[in-house]
């Protein structure tokens, strides 16, 4: 017999509460099942299938696509796919690092503003989200064109050829990536900076700590939860980004997102594209695991 409980003024039982909780969880569970679990299982199945003569999926299972991902093909071993994967990890790492370096002073600046104007500054940070990413990337093509100041200054400093645009290339890719993901780093950092205990910073300064020691021993530990969330929100999507590298990097800077897009699109090789996607997911999980182990005491809540 279920024991009678009083739950927020209502007389009920433990079994009824459990059934009610399951009912509340059911929509979210169905959503995750339909749009995460089932597609992931389908991706795994397709990754071990084969491509037919006309691009169809042939349900003959093998490890050939994983071998191709590792570089083994008809003409022997090639490091191209592994280099693309490594380059994607590097671009995501640099994007997260530069975004963090820019986000810290911006978050402190916003937190130091009067309460009435903070929301205005936060709105300015998220305004880029009001515009489609493709349009923002095309805007960077215009800003990096040879007739505008960025290219002229670079040519005057000898960093670029006169009359040449600053894209396509790695520099343009990094600029586009950092500008696209900077708000994802600023917002969680701001939430941590806003709750920082300034007395710890004052105590460190009273003890004649250098600026570096004040940051690493008084500021960084307090803002580490926000930094962790920001790195996750930046690193994961940056790993699979293909719009920015495609428009600002062209054929000179191919990342794993572009490779997946080519295989799903022009090449019509869905099994190999699924295998690359599994490799990208594995790299992301490994990177998160390494980052989590380095800061395992951080509370993300």
Automatic annotation (TrEMBL):
SUPFAM superfamilies, alphabetized: MetI-like (SSF161098)
Keyword field: Cell membrane, Membrane, Transmembrane, Transmembrane helix, Transport
Cellular localisation: Cell membrane
Membrane topology: Multi-pass membrane protein
A GO biological process held by the record: transmembrane transport
Residue stretches making up the ABC transmembrane type-1 domain: 85-291
InterPro entries, per the entry: MetI-like, MetI-like_sf
GO (cellular component) term, any one: plasma membrane
Transmembrane segments: 21-49, 89-112, 119-139, 171-193, 214-244, 272-291
Chief place of localization: membrane
Entry similarity comment: Belongs to the binding-protein-dependent transport system permease family. CysTW subfamily.
Protein known as: Spermidine/putrescine transport system permease protein PotB
């Amino acid at each position: 017999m279920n024991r009678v409980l009083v739950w927020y003024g209502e007389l009920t039982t433990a079994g009824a509460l459990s059934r009610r909780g399951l009912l509340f969880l059911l929509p979210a569970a169905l959503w995750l099942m339909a749009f995460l679990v089932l597609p992931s299982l389908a991706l795994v199945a397709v990754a071990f299938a084969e491509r037919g003569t006309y691009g169809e999926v042939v349900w003959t299972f093998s490890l050939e696509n994983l071998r191709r991902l590792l570089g083994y093909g008809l003409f022997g071993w090639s490091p191209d796919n592994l280099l693309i994967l490594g380059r994607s990890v590097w671009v995501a790492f640099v994007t997260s690092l530069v975004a963090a370096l820019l986000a810290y002073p911006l978050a402190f600046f916003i937190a130091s503003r009067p309460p009435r104007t903070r929301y205005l500054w936060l709105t300015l940070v998220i305004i880029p989200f009001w515009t489609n990413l493709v349009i923002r990337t095309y805007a960077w093509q215009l800003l990096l064109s040879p007739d505008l100041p960025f290219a002229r200054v670079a040519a005057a400093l000898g960093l670029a050829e006169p009359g040449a645009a600053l894209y396509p290339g790695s520099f343009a890719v990094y600029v586009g990536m950092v500008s696209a993901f900077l708000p994802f780093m600023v917002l969680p950092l701001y939430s941590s900076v806003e709750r920082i205990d300034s007395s710890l910073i004052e105590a460190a300064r009273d003890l004649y700590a250098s600026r570096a020691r004040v940051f690493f021993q008084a500021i960084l530990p307090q803002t580490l939860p926000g930094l962790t969330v920001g790195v996750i929100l930046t690193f994961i999507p940056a790993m699979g980004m293909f719009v920015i590298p495609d428009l600002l990097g062209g054929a000179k800077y191919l990342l794993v997102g572009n490779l997946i897009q080519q295989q799903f699109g022009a090449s019509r090789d869905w099994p190999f594209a699924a295998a690359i996607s599994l490799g990208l997911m594995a790299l992301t999980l490994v990177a998160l695991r390494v980052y989590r182990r380095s800061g395992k005491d951080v509370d993300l809540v």
